[in-house]
UniProtKB/TrEMBL annotation:
GO biological process: proteasome-mediated ubiquitin-dependent protein catabolic process; system development
Subunit structure: Component of the 19S regulatory particle (RP/PA700) lid subcomplex of the 26S proteasome. The 26S proteasome is composed of a core protease (CP), known as the 20S proteasome, capped at one or both ends by the 19S regulatory particle (RP/PA700). The RP/PA700 complex is composed of at least 17 different subunits in two subcomplexes, the base and the lid, which form the portions proximal and distal to the 20S proteolytic core, respectively.
Gene3D superfamilies the record matches: Cytidine Deaminase, domain 2 (3.40.140.10)
GO molecular function, one term: metallopeptidase activity
Protein name as catalogued: MPN domain-containing protein
Residue span, MPN domain: 17-154
Amino acid sequence: MDVIKSQQLSARPIEKVVVHPLVLLSIVDNYYRVAKDTHKRVVGVLLGSSFKGTVDVTNSYAVPFEEDDKDPSIWFLDHNYHEAMFSMFKRINAKEHVVGWYSTGPKLRENDLDVHGLFNDYVPNPVLVIIDVQPKELGIPTKAYYAIEEVKENATQKSQKVFVHVPSEIAAHEVEEIGVEHLLRDVKDTTISTLATEVTGKLAALKGLDARLKEIRGYLDLVIDGKLPLNHEILYHLQDVFNLLPNLNVADLIKAFAVKTNDQMLVIYLSSLIRSVIALHNLINNKMLNKEHEKAEDAKPATVPPVAGKPPLAYHGNSTAPSNSPAKSSGDFASKVTVAGGVMLKASSLELSAKSSVTGTEKVNADSDEVIDF
């Protein structure tokens, strides 16, 4: 039976990996720009510091990476790009150095040990952090690993490297918390209205203010009771906060505040009034345009369907189209239209025979109202 011994590749084992929010945001942004809706993963470099077994990951950047889906042993990582990027990052913050690399797995792959070996040239014991950019369960989306070398005590004495899981957590400084909070406010959910989002944000801000005020009050109570020593530096900071508060009991300040408020309300009132007048003006213009359009439609000549052997006829206005029905009897006051040789005549006659007609270009001598040409 083989006896397996694990040998740490560095002097001190890694006990914990702390990932900052900026790193998560950068990795997610890289994934959605490069590998969204694909089966590919993105790879990058982790920057930070290591102290007493705790790796603090504070920054990251992406690195061009390609691999063969069918043959995991074929992969490419642009280490020249990595060296150029690290040189520029080092100019900005010399305290950050390479602590490992990341992958959007979402799990370990066969060639990860080979890629991990490449980063051994830049850091003695790099860490691998796998980020699940599309988690299905609520929880920390990071898994951290580091490599150890296992030696089998048998005839071959052959060793191999394996990954060992290490606990990871998400932590941030106070400045980062404020920045992330502002960034998350810009993330809009289509299922939530703008008003609900604003109210939720204001409510969260007020709750935070209330918690901080309670913390200050608790500290002052402990100082008054003698349970905590008096710290003049903290009191100076509190005094600076109180000095920022306005004194609303000054008459001049109250008057100035009222004048400014009235001016703002006057501007709002005038804006609303102007908006109403413009809306009424547009409504009247629309009514007038619609009326003119209707008149223009009524004035257009209408076309009568053509009769066999004759050209199509047209009539104007409220004239009645010719009918094939026989003329009505005497005493009918209805208007009658008689067509003759391309001329349409509107006649209002009391006594017209059913056989009466006009041929050629004759003129009707009956009680005609008008002669309409087309």
